[in-house]
Amino acid sequence: MRRLMIALLMALSGVSCQYDPFAHEFTEVKPKASDLVGTYVLDSQSIDMLNRHYQVPPPGSRFILRDDGTFTIQNVPSCWRAAAKCTRQTETAEGRWEIRKDQQQWWAVQLGCTNISGNKIDYAVPAMIRGDHPPLLLHFTVGDPDTGEGLAFRKL
């Protein structure tokens, strides 16, 4: 009986694994940097999520990837970073970016922030790449991936 209980507990713990409902959209095909360079804004699904779940009006966010490997994020909701709660407060950030594998499966734009809202910082965060062909979306998971909340940026 004890072995049966242990086997049942092990089986149930495997069922409760994390599932990100956007994971099937994350690319496994390495994109060209030239396909990523440009200016991005929040997509309509992200704006809707901010309004419905957080009562946050669209902040006019901009995410700029430059061909020299630098980036700037302007007026992005605070929840773009996993450690921050989604509020009406917005942030700006700058630093360097590169294309890198995330979790040994998907491709992401790895952001190395050197400044967030005027504070010098050494902070890294991936923006997952959604889609296998341009136009690509850049995706930040908001909170627990199981909730299906994220900020996705589309290229202008």
Describe this structure in words.
It is a single chain. The chain has one domain. It is 19% helix and 41% strand. It has three helices and eight strands; from the N terminus they run H-H-E-H-E-E-E-E-E-E-E. It has an eight-stranded antiparallel β-barrel. It is globular. The relative contact order is 0.22. The model is unreliable at 3-17 (pLDDT under 50).
Overall structural class, as computed from helix and strand content, comes to: alpha+beta
The rounded distance between the terminal residues' Cα atoms is 61 Å
Report the uncertain regions.
3-17
Mean pLDDT, all residues: 86
Short description:
The chain has 156 residues and is of the alpha+beta class. The chain is 19% helix and 41% strand.
For this entry, give a set of tags.
alpha+beta; 156 residues; eight-stranded antiparallel β-barrel; 3 helices
List the helices and strands and how they pair.
Blueprint: H1 2-15, H2 33-36, E1 38-42, H3 44-54, E2 62-65, E3 70-77, E4 90-102, E5 106-116, E6 119-130, E7 137-141, E8 150-155
Antiparallel strand pairs: 1-2, 1-8, 2-3, 3-4, 4-5, 5-6, 6-7, 7-8
